[in-house]
């Protein structure tokens, strides 16, 4: 990782509370934005380059990006105990809310117009948050023509060819890895 020599000393409790706050305040698809804002911005546990590297790993693994990121960051900071603390912290708020929502929704099968309106609004905000994070990460990671080419190839694979993200990853990653491999001349 980029900043492997600069791993901060963080308590298990602080890891748990930080991810509990992220889990309690991030809604919908905007969680990557909250993760970046917290982990790179306010907490400064990661730099942008390391965040992008970890996010790339998270996106290539099964499961939710948020829980995958919590595990990787927690492990990076404090090993297995940090990974467990981060995972429980990020999952607890949403899990409790989902249990309560399922119980409330299951108690009555009526349509809830206000709830539907809130969910629609939150969904729109989440899309905006994802777009913001995408633009920010692109600005910091797509610096040279090959970066742009591989990002565009992946996007085209998914949007124009309608292939899965996993298949796009398997198609583009080996070529990108070959292109960016370390060379004997140091370039």
Automatic annotation (TrEMBL):
<feature type="transmembrane region" description="Helical">
    <location>
        <begin position="80"/>
        <end position="105"/>
    </location>
</feature>
<dbReference type="InterPro" id="IPR052518">
    <property type="entry name" value="CHR_Transporter"/>
</dbReference>
<feature type="transmembrane region" description="Helical">
    <location>
        <begin position="117"/>
        <end position="135"/>
    </location>
</feature>
<keyword id="KW-0812">Transmembrane</keyword>
<protein>
    <submittedName>
        <fullName>Chromate transporter</fullName>
    </submittedName>
</protein>
<keyword id="KW-1133">Transmembrane helix</keyword>
<dbReference type="InterPro" id="IPR003370">
    <property type="entry name" value="Chromate_transpt"/>
</dbReference>
<feature type="transmembrane region" description="Helical">
    <location>
        <begin position="12"/>
        <end position="34"/>
    </location>
</feature>
<dbReference type="GO" id="GO:0005886">
    <property type="term" value="C:plasma membrane"/>
</dbReference>
<keyword id="KW-0472">Membrane</keyword>
<dbReference type="Pfam" id="PF02417">
    <property type="entry name" value="Chromate_transp"/>
</dbReference>
<keyword id="KW-1003">Cell membrane</keyword>
<dbReference type="GO" id="GO:0015109">
    <property type="term" value="F:chromate transmembrane transporter activity"/>
</dbReference>
<comment type="similarity">
    <text>Belongs to the chromate ion transporter (CHR) (TC 2.A.51) family.</text>
</comment>
<feature type="transmembrane region" description="Helical">
    <location>
        <begin position="147"/>
        <end position="180"/>
    </location>
</feature>
């Amino acid at each position: 990782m980029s900043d492997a020599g600069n791993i901060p000393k963080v308590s298990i409790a602080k890891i748990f509370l930080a991810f509990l706050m992220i889990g309690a305040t991030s809604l919908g698809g905007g969680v990557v934005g909250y993760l970046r804002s917290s982990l790179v911005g306010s907490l400064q546990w990661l730099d942008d380059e390391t965040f992008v590297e970890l996010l790339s790993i998270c996106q290539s693994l099964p499961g939710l990006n948020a829980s995958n990121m919590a595990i990787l960051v927690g492990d990076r900071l404090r090993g297995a105990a940090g990974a467990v603390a981060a995972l429980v912290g990020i999952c607890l708020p949403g899990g409790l809310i989902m249990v309560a929502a399922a119980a409330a929704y299951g108690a009555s099968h009526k349509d809830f117009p206000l709830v539907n309106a809130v969910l629609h609004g939150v969904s729109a905000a989440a899309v905006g948050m994802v777009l913001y994070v995408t633009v920010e990460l692109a600005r910091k990671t797509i610096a040279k023509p090959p970066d742009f080419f591989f990002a565009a190839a992946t996007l085209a694979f998914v949007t124009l060819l309608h292939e899965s993200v996993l298949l796009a990853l398997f198609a583009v990653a080996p070529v990108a890895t070959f292109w960016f491999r370390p060379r004997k001349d140091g370039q």
